[in-house]
Design brief:
The protein has about 250 residues and is mainly α. About 80% of the residues lie in helices and about 0% in strands. The chain has one domain.
């Protein structure tokens, strides 16, 4: 399989994941609340496992200096921090103007940009090593499932009809494919090696800053245990993939 084929297939599959949000219409609210927490914890473990067990070791194998790799990681981390700050500021600014349903449009805009950057980073990894790219894609997909469940629920709650919500979620998901194709086109002109630590920085920010706090707010010991076990499962899965790919432990 060529890198371009892997990028296109990965982008289309990631777009299809956007349709998982429709499941929220079939589930009772109590059921959804029970499964989203463990899914978010699992996604956090997968993202961090992907960054630390796959991407950062690949950076070392590519011969990048530690200083250069650190710059790439911090660039990816900082860009997502700036994006999230803008989203929060824009939401508050629009809300003060009493605009109708500002959060729903902001979620679509932010999710589309997030998918574009994610596709850029994962494709950059695939261009170096398809097997490594598959591991990065799996970690990103684990994050997308709980995110799409939440996003779709917000759109419906904000007054969107089911079909338009699914359509725009799908279009937002296609931004992942666009980002991948941009990375592929740029690879002929620039060295895409720096996209690997950049993607690692994205994964670390999302996992540690966005997802871990979401599952770290409960006072119930059983809920905390389930979330921690789900987090560990995500980490172990990505470590297992590393071992299965033949990487040295």
């Amino acid at each position: 399989m060529t890198s371009l084929t892997a990028i296109v297939i990965g982008g289309l599959l990631m777009s299809a994941i956007a349709m998982v949000g429709s499941v929220t219409l079939l589930l009772r609210e109590e059921t959804l609340e029970r499964i989203v927490g463990p899914l978010v914890a699992f996604a956090a473990g997968s993202l961090l496992g992907g960054a630390f067990f796959h991407m950062l070791p690949a950076v070392a194998e590519q011969g990048l200096s530690s200083a250069t790799a650190a710059i790439g990681v911090m660039a990816g981390f900082s860009l997502f921090l700036a994006l999230e700050q803008f989203m929060h500021w824009h939401h508050c600014h629009r809300a003060r103007a009493d605009c109708k349903e500002p959060l729903t449009y902001l979620i679509l805009l932010g999710d589309g940009l997030h998918n574009f950057l994610g596709g850029l980073g994962v494709a950059g990894v695939m261009l170096l090593d398809i097997r490594l790219g598959v591991a990065a894609w799996l970690a990103a997909a684990a994050h997308e499932i709980p995110q799409e469940l939440g996003d779709f629920g917000v759109l419906i709650h904000g007054g969107w009809k089911r079909r338009p919500a699914l359509l725009f979620n799908l279009l937002s998901g296609l931004a992942f494919l666009v980002g991948g194709l941009v990375a592929y086109a740029a690879s002929a002109r620039i060295d895409v090696t720096m996209l690997v630590p950049f993607a690692a920085g994205n994964f670390i920010y999302i996992g540690a800053s966005d997802l871990v706090p979401e599952v770290n707010r409960h006072h119930d010991a059983l809920v905390n245990f389930v979330h921690f076990a789900s987090f560990v499962a995500g980490v172990v899965l990505l470590w297992s993939i590393r071992v299965a790919l033949g990487a040295e432990a």
